[in-house]
From TrEMBL:
UniProt keyword list: Signal
Name of protein: T9SS C-terminal target domain-containing protein
Signal peptide, first to last residue: 1-18
Protein species of origin: Elizabethkingia bruuniana
Length: 291
């Protein structure tokens, strides 16, 4: 009987730990409204001192330099890429990588990542390669709007590899895939781990041994995960802290995330639903608030 009660206690402790969520309201950390040019900011990255963002599907294939202090657009970089559904951006200090892999319907067979050398002095950017990939686990390509597990809006570059994190509408989980940016032919993304996030992930960033994932639920609750790296490129078997940031109805549909030495820039695109109209905004969440 004692062993039975001990087992139950251990299980309850594990469940309690797994479900621990800290409340950290994002609204007080608002920096600025974002220019109407960038109503659908779907990703953020910092390269050569520039904070960059972009609009997602249905918009020009352009990258915008965003002023973090007043939300204005400093420069518009035109590219020769195609914006079917851009959803993520990262960099390796010299090149930006733009993920055209938005897949709400789950039926795309043309998932790609553009590698684009970044020169802040020019206004025209030309991609040097396309990194084409597919999910080997996917067998069904019928249209299932927001009811599939092969959408993605988040990636980082780490140890010479692209690490992609899925937006799993059906299972409310996130899977971690690795893609080789040097491969020029169509390649299978390699699944390495998964985590039951209970929200859909919309962006990711990495800083000093921690992976940060952000996203929301269908009920518009916004969450942030802080995941400790336990081995090179392994994030989901160690300490994971979950933060509730508030409601998208108040501060926009959170889609962008990138790290600095002091904290996290977070962007929310315009959120319109019936009488709700939350304008696009930029936030800065200091790391000290996450300790």
């Amino acid at each position: 009987m004692k062993l039975k009660y001990l087992f139950i206690a251990l299980v309850m402790a594990q469940v309690s730990f797994a479900q621990e969520v800290r409340t950290l309201k994002l609204k007080p950390f608002e920096k600025t409204l974002i220019s109407d040019t960038l109503k659908e900011s779907s990703g953020l990255t910092i390269i050569k001192g520039k904070l960059l963002s972009f609009n997602d599907s249905g918009n020009p294939a352009e990258i915008y330099e965003l002023n973090p202090n007043n939300g204005s657009i400093g420069k518009t970089y035109k590219t020769n890429a195609v914006n079917i559904d851009w959803e993520a951006i990262t960099n390796d200090s010299e090149n930006i990588y733009v993920g055209d892999f938005g897949n709400n319907l789950g039926n795309r067979k043309d998932l790609t990542i553009y590698k684009i050398p970044f020169n802040p002095e020019t206004e025209n950017l030309t991609y040097t390669s396309r990194i084409n990939f597919f999910y080997p686990e996917q067998q069904d390509f019928s249209s299932k709007n927001r009811n599939n597990d092969f959408d993605a809006e988040a990636m980082i570059l780490l140890n010479g590899k692209i690490h992609l994190f899925t937006k799993e509408w059906k299972s409310k989980s996130v899977s971690h895939y690795i893609i080789d940016p040097t491969t020029e032919t169509l390649q299978p993304a390699q699944k390495t781990e998964s985590y039951q996030s209970d929200f859909v992930v919309t962006d990711a960033t990495y800083y000093q041994g921690k992976l940060y994932l952000i996203g929301y639920t269908k009920g518009a609750n916004v969450y942030l995960l802080s995941c400790e790296e336990t081995a090179p490129g392994v994030f989901f078997n160690g300490k994971i802290q979950k933060y509730f940031l508030g409601m998208a109805t108040r501060f926009g549909q959170i889609e962008g995330l990138t790290a600095t030495e002091e904290g996290l820039y977070i962007s929310g695109e315009q959120f319109k639903f019936k009488i709700i109209n939350a304008r696009q905004r930029l936030y800065f969440l200091p790391f000290k608030e996450l300790n």
